[in-house]
Each structure stands twice: as C-alpha cells, then as structure tokens.
Here is the input.
Amino acid sequence: MKIDQVSDSVYVVAGTNVNWALVSDDRGVTVVDAGYPADTASVLSSVAQIGHELGDVAAVVVTHAHLDHIGAIPALVEKLGVPVYTGAEEVRHAKREYLQQITPAQMVRLLGSRRGAVWVAQTLRAVAGHIGMSVPMAEAADAETLAALPGGLVAVPTPGHTNGHTAYFMPSEGVLFSGDALVTGHPIVCGTGVQLLPGVFNHDEDGTLASARGLATLGAEVLVPGHGLPIRKDLPTLLDAFARS
Ligand SMILES: [Zn+2]
Here is the structure.
C-alpha cells in the first residue's frame, strides 16, 4: 500500500494493482472505491494513516462494481454502517442483476503472455473466496447527497467499461476520480500516461472511448485513475490530446 496526497484533501492509495482514494475535509472522509477483497485491511488502515478514525468515514462512493473496486465494502458497512453510493444503472450491476466483467475464458487467454500470467495469478489471490460477491446495499446518490459528502463530489456518468460506470469530479480542487473510464497504466500493458484499459476489460469499447473523451471537458487539474499513477501536471493538455486522438 502506498499513499500519495494529490491535493489539499485527496489521498490516493495504491493497493493490489488498483487504486482507491480518500477525500478528507472537516465533514469527515469519503472513500472512493474500495480495492480488492484482499485489500480490505489496507483500506481500513489507510483511513488511520491519513490521520482519521474509521468513524470519520461518511460514505463509500463507487465508480463501478468490479471486484477490484468493491472489496472492502462489506467490512466498511459492517463496522460503520455507512451508505454505499454509485450511479443508478451501476446499482443494478452492484446487486448482480447482471454481470459485465472479464470472463474465465478471457482470463485463460491472458495466460499466454508473461504480464498476463502474473496479473491473473495476483488477481485470483486478491479475490479468493469472494468471486461471487455483490453489493446489495448499493444505492443511487442524487446530486445533493454527493455534494454534501466530504469533498463535495459531482457524478459524471461514463458508460462503457460497464453500462453504469460513474466517474466523480471534485470541483473545489479540480480532482477527477476517473475509475476505469480512463486510466494511466495497467499491469498487463507496458505503456503509461492517459489511456483506456485494454479492450478485454471494457464491456462496450466504443462507449468507453466516447466517455473517456468527454472527461476532457470537465476542467480537471488532477487525475485519480482506478489503475496507474495519478497525474497532477499538465492534465488539461494531456486530456485534450487524448480527446483529439
Ligand atoms: Zn478496475
């Protein structure tokens, strides 16, 4: 686990090949995404490491209901009873009314490359015992509710990676939590910088690209992706170049 403060209020935590973020202000802490099931202890201890008590957590806000973004939610809800918010369509995915994620056959195909094989092994360890988990308590947040949470967030529907994928923007500090709509790296690819996840992870590739391009219009200064390093320098230029590519 590595914690990186990227603005006055926002801390990005790198867990097992995935990031979550903590948004801290005098109202408490909003947890944005929640790592793999195997990251649960790290998610809980990251709150203490930025100087808060667990009881300061006001809510968990989820970009999408893949296992690498929801892992610590059962523990957070059980210990704290906090609400879990995501986009209205993603609520259905979180409840597993349907499932849009990489298939076992696609994972087997990834074993053909060294990077893929390492990632598959790490992923299977990180989800062990929790492959069938869902988030039955997920609920849709309206704009007022999100704005009142620590940090004050705005939902940005970004369908593609999943139909209900939702990014979040924090206007006061210009921070964009892009989840898996736009990332800056992934263990199965070698390139870094603003990019889409490999197509095997995206339910709708055209939608993913259109949503990612749309993120350039928000005026974000800091990018907190679901995978890869945060970007704090020249973000408007980088997003603009990506949107035109
Ligand atoms: Zn992810």
In short: The chain has one domain: 2-244.
